[in-house]
Amino acid sequence: MSDAHAEQAAHEHIGLKHQFENLDQQQDADTLGIWLFLVTEIMFFGGAFAAYAIFRWLYFAAFEGGSHILDIRLGAANTVVLLGSSLTMALSVRSAQTGNRRALVIFLILTMILGGVFLGVKAYEYNQKFVEHIVPSLDWAPEGKVLAELAPGGLEHAQLYFFFYFAMTGLHAIHMIIGMGLLLWLVLRGRRGDFTPSYFAPVEVIGLYWHFVDIVWIFLFPLLYLIGGRY
Amino acid sequence: MSHHIVPLKTYIIVFLSLIGLTLLTTGVAFIDLGPFNTVVALAIAFSKMFLVVYFFMHLRQSGGLVRVTVIAGFFWMALLIALTMSDYRTRTWTPVPKAWSITAPPTHP
Fold first, then answer.
1. Domain map of chain A by residue range?
2. N or C: which end of chain B has fewer CB within 10 A?
3. B 18-37 residues with CB < 8 A to A
């Protein structure tokens, strides 16, 4: 191979790691890799969902009472915010594919902002739980209307519902915080011009992770907020 | 493979459908359908998941290997929940033999 040829090949393959033949093969491997990770995440959250299903069945009245305490408007608003962040994430990947560096950075930042709004609303909801004294173990002393809602199902079992609430939404929030860190890294690399229409695998891979976190919330919202008999 | 660029219009339509389904599932929560409230809520959640996975996560353009991986993941989760629930729900169906009843754990209602 001549020097000129080698130089040209190297130039075409910015971002190509040495173990891969070409960028297409590399991106196929990257996509499969993140999906395998997401499958382990499905099983990770699946265990929590299975446990929730069992205890909701065993202590049905307590779990319905717990659902009534949650603010359905905040839950629905947060669902819309998170779906919006999935749209801007999808548009980030599209901008990388079309080679629009400016749009890529803008959509990535928008995704981070929407993620931040979601976490802000979540923080407000967590604070409400402390105000109402329905944080299991730490601050558990429901009173007034909240107590009347929770008492019929048994207070111990209602505490279990809120334990699930904090564990599942907390795990989801941790995933979002990690995702926002990854997005920041993408913004810095995107500004530098690291991504081209032939090399944008990091944007695609982190996008897949972000959409997965969105899917977890798509199930948490009906299971925690909606199916408690609001009528 | 993934260099196929999805038209902007597709993403917008998928997003609006997702918002529509969110409003629908929130509205249905206030209507008494008996046990079907849970069924409808989960059916809508699965529809939303499908839209996100198929369009936003590019399963539409993905090869067979990725598709099999995704389906295997959800299949295993379905096994996890179905087998666990069928265990719990049928535990009280068979009588506990007298000789075991001393050590048997208390049964739930």
1. 23-226
2. C
3. 18-19, 22-23, 25-26, 29-32, 37
Nearest-angstrom CA–CA distance, A215 and B47: 11
Q: What is the ipTM of this complex?
A: 0.89
Interface contact flag, B2 A204, Cβ < 8 Å: yes
Express each pLDDT in A71-105 by its tens digit: 999 999 999 999 999 999 999 999 999 999 999 99
User: A23-226 sits in which CATH class?
Assistant: mainly alpha
CA distance A2 to chain B (A): 30
Q: What's the pTM value of the predicted model, to 2 decimals?
A: 0.90
In the numeric block, which tokens belong to residue B90?
A: 């049928």
Closest to A31 (Cβ–Cβ): which among B2, B5, B77?
B2
CA dist., res. B106 & res. B109, Å (int): 10
3-state DSSP: chain A helix, strand, coil percent, rounded to 5?
80, 5, 15
